[in-house]
Design a protein that fits this description.
Glutamyl-tRNA Synthetase, domain 2, binds glutamic acid, 3-stranded antiparallel β-sheet, Rossmann fold, 4 domains, alpha/beta, 4-stranded mixed β-sheet, about 550 residues
Amino acid sequence: MDFNYIAELLFPNVTMTEEELEAKYPVRNLKEGAIVSRMAPSPTGFVHLGNLVQGITSERLCHQSGGTLFLRVEDTDQKREVAGAVEILIDTLKYYNINFDEGATIEGDNGIYAPYRQRQRKDIYHVYAKRLVKEGKAYPCFCTEDELAEMHEQQEKLKENFGYYGKWAKWRDRTNEEIETELKAGKPWVLRFRSTGSIENKIKFTDYIKGNLEVTENDIDHVLLKSDGIPTYHFAHAVDDHLMRTTHVVRGDEWLSTLPFHIQLFSALGFRLPKYLHIGPLMKMDGESKRKLSKRKDPELALSYYKQEGYPAQSLYEYILTILNSNYEDWRRANPTASTEEFKFSYKKMNPAGSLFDGAKLLDVSKNVISRMSAEDVYNGSTEWAGEYDKELYSALTRNPEYTKAIFSIGRGGKNPRKDIALWSEVRSYVDLFYDELFKVQDEYSDKFSKNDIKITLQEFTKVFDIADDSNTWFEKIKDIADMLGYASDMRAYKQNPEAYKGNVSDISMFIRLAVTGKLNSPDMYSVMQILGYETVIKRVNEMIKSL
Ligand code: GLU
């Protein structure tokens, strides 16, 4: 059979050669062991946690090894594409600090392996498609949707395996004349792979995450090019990862089922197979059992959710490192101020079955991340969030940036920083006491305290409060009020004989705290008053006295 004849009929316009492509996209000049990987998401408009898991894994592996990470947009499925999706994708990955060395950017392509958007690579795929046809490794198929549906029905009836293979592969062994007739009639066609595999055979394969696997050979004549000449994922994966010199493919394990086909395809094309890392799915507890996170049921699968809720990007990044490498948390504890890049990430520690996603743990990680930030970073993070999601808070925070940064400085730095904020959306309730327009008395004095004692405490406080006092002098004055009212100023004495007192100095502090902050709990009172200033403190205390 003269396959050349059909190859020319199918691809009359191929002008490039494989040699030219090999020269245009040269083998990368990188040091031994350097990993080249990519993120290859489809622009569906939905960027999810799985993308981030895959992105962080490949980013760490590439950059830790002195290699290269690039972004390729897999836009071969036009039906699923949403307007603006590529921009959303690029912006989201940037927000989460996945830094690409090359690939698609908002401004266009960056790098010599361009184009990085698959639809623009059509001509390249055709060079290889034509060669496969010439070698008898691929052929056109003119089956209609209806014919394929009917085949499926038949297979169901006869209890045979589904798919286009063996005797079911209607166009596999047609003559040139038959093919030419259809082509001349303008019938649409897809290009199929002529599989030589058998499901009787097993192949051994080592995946870097899943370990040693034994998979069944592929006998399906999968589609390589769709009727519009655009490749399927499989064909684009082989051609692009070869020409872009990818050494490691990090992807979701939903691709494991087509791996036998990919192995066949690389071999048919004469390409070296990359190393594969198939990542297990993210799961969550649903009652007693685990299940995969689902787009439909779990809003927390979408990365947009976290931005809206006010999680700093860094919190998610660190949380994902925590679930991927179980030693990350200990490392972070021992190295609280180190950059995440200093952590030695290892794919060997990844769970082949996938990771469990735990929202409570994420919040905890986030609290730690924010507690380690400088006041400046907290200011920047919270105002950026508030600018988009809480305008009233935004205008309060930005009115006097130095004042706001002073608030965020309370209890920051040092060995045990305060951990009051897990989300930017919690900043409002943390800072509201510092801004008159947000301030409200939210808590109440317990009935067990005498109103009169509270009143006297507040009145005395207004008499002695001096903003110039240092914290010791300030506290001595509060202790004096305690002594005066029969509350213990010395905690040890109180503990030895609590019956002898009406209460202790922390109750007296609380009387003042509630008046000044509106809450029973607040950051360090002395620092709070220093920021609020004399007039505001006195005004709030007087208002409380009036209301009692
Ligand atoms: N577009 C594919 C996906 O989003 C890419 C898989 C791969 O990384 O090869 O699942």
